[in-house]
Write a structure and sequence with these properties.
alpha/beta; Nucleotidyltransferase, domain 5; 2 domains; five-stranded mixed sheet; 13 helices; 10 strands; 47% helix; 20% strand; globular; Euk-type_GlcNAc_Kinase; ATPase; ATPase_NBD; ATPase_BadF
């Protein structure tokens, strides 16, 4: 591609899409934000149509009609066949001469590292982990929920909290203050009332994830069951990270392990301390950190990597997103 590539960077998550148009010298010409990207729910065509709106906004604001390279980090691109399908769909839009599609977790990893090297674990609605090396090798998991062996993520944590609270209230399980804190969040008196409201959809199913912060607050107040769930999440995060580091032969050298997504970015002390402690014993050379940078920066940096852009171009781009 040479070193004069204009990059269209796309970071499309389940809840929102960020787009940036980056000049060959690393200057950000324009950014735009759009809605979530959910091909499984709406189909690839309509999902890409939604992206097109946001891309058009950014191109118009930048005063350009296309880019040289499209670097798209997309939610729900979990298998290579899905990446290929989405890359084909993006090619037909003619936004750029070359197109590279990756899972959106790679954007969070690349945003937090100075070179494409290390591992990221993202815990938002779901949980996922990816790793990369400068030579192009990657490590990843399908991350589709229980069928692909996952545990954790905001949805999973809320479900786990509900399970323990339901059993505590009716006597099948050990007592926990989750029995009170979960229904109280919705202004309800008992778990029985909450279970009924969720079942009859008097509480919208999408609101279930609101219970994850309640779980962490309950854990912070000392509840043993809630604390057990948080400890289990720390263990799960470190297990994924250690497997990815091992696959990439990074376990024996200093390598970043970055934490991202809403649940990890909230920096709950018990969770972050638990992750640090477990990493210290299982991957002692790993350097943990929480990614604060916008993931679209990561998508743009991956685009600059592909274009072979020099370091000062990377630095100029970073300054825009990390003032």
């Amino acid at each position: 591609m040479g070193m004069t590539a204009r990059v269209l960077a796309v970071d499309a998550g389940n809840s929102k899409t960020d787009v940036a148009v980056v000049a060959p010298d690393g200057t950000v010409l324009a950014t735009a934000r759009g809605g979530g990207f959910r091909p499984p729910a709406v189909g690839v065509g309509p999902a890409v149509d939604g992206l097109a709106e946001t891309v058009k906004q950014a191109f118009t604001a930048a005063g350009v009609t296309s880019a040289d390279h499209v670097s798209a980090c997309l939610a729900n691109a979990d298998f290579p066949v899905e990446e290929e399908q989405l890359a084909t769909a993006l090619h037909t839009r003619a936004w750029g001469t070359t197109v590279e599609v990756r899972n959106d977790t790679f954007a969070i990893l690349r945003a937090g590292v100075t070179e494409p090297r290390g591992v990221a674990v993202v815990c938002g609605a779901g949980i996922n982990c990816v790793g990369m090396r400068p030579d192009g090798r990657t490590a990843r998991f399908p991350a589709l929920g229980r069928i692909s062996g996952d545990w954790g993520g905001g949805w999973g944590l809320a479900e786990e909290a509900l399970w323990h609270a339901a059993r505590a209230e009716d006597g099948r399980g050990a007592p926990t203050t989750l029995t009170h804190t979960l229904p109280a969040h919705f202004g309800l008196p008992t778990m029985y009332a909450l279970i009924e409201a969720l079942h009859l959809e008097h509480i919208a199913p999408t609101r279930r994830h609101e219970l994850t912060p309640v779980l962490f607050t309950t854990a912070a107040s000392g509840d043993p069951i809630a604390r057990g769930i948080v400890d289990r999440l720390a263990d799960e995060v470190v297990t994924m990270a250690t497997v990815a580091l091992t696959r990439l032969d990074l376990l024996e050298e200093e390598a970043p392990v970055l934490l991202g997504g809403g649940v990890l970015a909230a920096r709950h002390p018990q969770l972050i301390d638990g992750i640090r402690d477990l990493l210290a014993s299982r991957a002692p050379r790993a350097v943990p950190g929480v990614v604060a940078a916008s993931p679209v920066l990561g998508a743009a940096l991956l685009g600059l990597d592909a274009a072979g852009a020099p370091e000062e171009v990377h630095a100029r781009l970073r300054r825009h997103f990390e003032p």
